[in-house]
Amino acid sequence: MKTFLFASLCFVSVFLNAQKKLEIQFLEQSISVDGKLDETIWESLPGYSNFYNYLPTDKGLAKNQTEFKLFHNGEFLFVSAVYQDTTSTVQLSSLKRDDIGNTVAESETFVFIMDTQLQQQSAYYFAVNMGGAQVDGLVERINDGFSLSSNWNTVWKAATSVEGTRKQYELAIPLKNLSFNQNNNAIALQVYVRDIKNNSWTIFTDLSRNYRLFDLRFAQAFAIDNLPKTTAARFAVTPSMTVNHQEDVVEDSRETTFIPSLDVQYNLSSSLQLHATVNPDLSQIDVDQQETNLTRFSIFFPEQRNFFLENADLFSNLGQADVNPFYSRRIGATSDMQFGLKLSGNVTPKTRIGLLNAQTEADEDNAAQNYGVLVGEQQLSQRFVATGFLVNRQATDGFAFQKDYNRVTGLNLNYKSLNRKWTGVANVASSFTSGESGENLFFNTGLFYNVRGTALGASVRQVQRNYLAEVGFTPRLFNFDAEADVTIREGYTQTSFEGVLTKFPENGKNINAYRYFFGTNDTFWDEDGKLQQSSSFYNTALIFNSFSAVYMNLYHDYVNLKYSFDPLNNGNPLQPDDYSYFRARFGYNSERNTQLVYNTFAQYGQFYNGWNTTFGATINYRLLPYANLLMSYQLDDLDLGELGKRTFHLARFTGEVFFNNRLNWTTFVQYSSQNENLNINSRLQWEYKPLSFVYVVVTDNYNEQFARNNWGVAVKVNHRFDF
What we know:
Elements: H1 2-19, E1 23-26, H2 40-44, E2 52-55, E3 66-72, E4 76-84, H3 100-104, E5 109-115, E6 122-129, E7 134-142, E8 145-149, E9 157-163, E10 166-174, E11 186-195, E12 200-203, E13 220-224, E14 235-248, E15 253-269, E16 272-278, H4 306-309, H5 313-316, E17 337-348, E18 351-360, E19 368-379, E20 384-397, E21 400-416, E22 422-433, E23 441-451, E24 454-463, E25 478-481, E26 486-489, E27 492-503, E28 511-525, E29 531-544, E30 549-561, E31 577-589, E32 596-607, E33 610-623, E34 627-639, E35 645-658, E36 663-672, E37 677-689, E38 692-702, E39 708-718, E40 721-722
Parallel strand pairs: 1-3, 1-13
Antiparallel strand pairs: 2-12, 3-4, 4-10, 5-6, 5-11, 6-7, 7-8, 9-10, 11-12, 11-13, 14-15, 14-39, 14-40, 15-16, 16-17, 17-18, 18-19, 19-20, 20-21, 21-22, 22-23, 23-24, 24-27, 25-26, 27-28, 28-29, 29-30, 30-31, 31-32, 32-33, 33-34, 34-35, 35-36, 36-37, 37-38, 38-39
């Protein structure tokens, strides 16, 4: 009987909500953002509820419902939400701003997404957890889906409160900080709630778990009453000053510098933004996580500089993950960046542009360089988006361009079916480099299929030997011969296949999912069509309702090694030959909603002509919500017989202390025996005013014998002025 009544209520609720007009009313009123929802205006507004389950199940309406309301007054968009919990207990993992992994995913959180252009290409992301910690960012289209970045920031207000078992959220988002299509009088919204206590995600749209929560194709259109035809131009100026003291113990040198810098952001229109930076200082950004690299090629490290991250989808998705013509970390990698200028956004409802220019200074070993990127994106139809681009690097002497240059131009075509099951991509690009000619092309095509429980994909690409993307990331093009100590450039053809088959029990008491099969294969041929490498991966896993999981991975590699390779770095390289080898990994991941979270795995198998044993473990202890301690360790033992043996150790410690949601202290300690380095980075961060910060950063580096190489301390203060 209870089941029947609940089902009946759900049906009635869905029916009534379906009849309700989805709109954002204009009201000449304002509220105090305190999370209490005691203003009478909230009582008069329609509420939107009927949230669906997403995880641990993606079937039916959520047992714990959420209702949100919203209106605008021409200056702010106001949002309220009430989550009907079963307890007043609040569980948090972080009070740190822009920490998606802990502040959002591992806490009780309300998330609000706005596609203001109604183009399903990009959207604004706002989240606040029950501790008042805020996360803002951008949802961006990538080649075959969407990604989420928290590196876009703006000034907005949020507050929360608890009334009995009601978890209440209140937001005020300035309209002038957002770009709108003034002709639409509508935007698309997605809203979801995370409850870490019971491992649940609930969402406004009935969304299958094979799609991401922030997939913009499922956002709901809301009409906007009396949307201002022009919003006040946002003009934000952020000057900063850094005092940096560095000491090199090995060279017995020390230096103290005073570094002024300036960031300016200006809205040329409601949808087109200009961002300029002068003499940017990067002392406060997070350090890269060190990795043990047992491959023959360089590995990718993500961009962390804010200047390059706003509207990053326009610039970072010009190719594929391992053949990308623009990799912003190349800029400033060898010498300091003097200035940067970026123009990005919509010039028409279906046309986006991106223009980026950056200049680096000369030093003793490198000429000054100018970097330019021009991107144009056109939505051809509901199914197709075309993107053209030009990436340029040119040596400079003062204001004069030199004859040392590298340019890449290309065209991308993205496809998405109206039924959301199919996505596709096609890429073509050509490079032009001083002193090089011919064999300078890159081609790629791929098609992907995704339904609940099943995903398939296939792609083919070719990279010719003179396709040089010097401001990009194409690691496989460059083959290092360890014995001859030279790098040989060779083109290649690659085929890739992937497939996933998962079963979701409808009424599983303990089991959330059986992943029967997750497999990939990447095969490479050289310029003569000879097979060079085939790498296969297979995974199977059992995922419990607590989201703990046990899994098994199998790997097989065939390598026709053309050039000597020294994975031990001991001067005894592997010689060119045919190698075929297998490895197996077994692992366990614990549940995520407890104070102690841990993962562990063990791997054993062949490695070229020898054997490789790998063990890894991660332990995360949460002193909720005031501290978060994470420790990880990985051991790689290589035995290559007569070539030698070596054991690599990689250890990390991250300690975070949250004094409140504006003041936190983070310390990273990393040790890599492969890199022969022990690194310590400790940062105190105080947001004394929205998006105005004080940083105190201490760095310390030691060699493998734990003798100090260098150390430094930096104090940075910036202040944001909004006009």
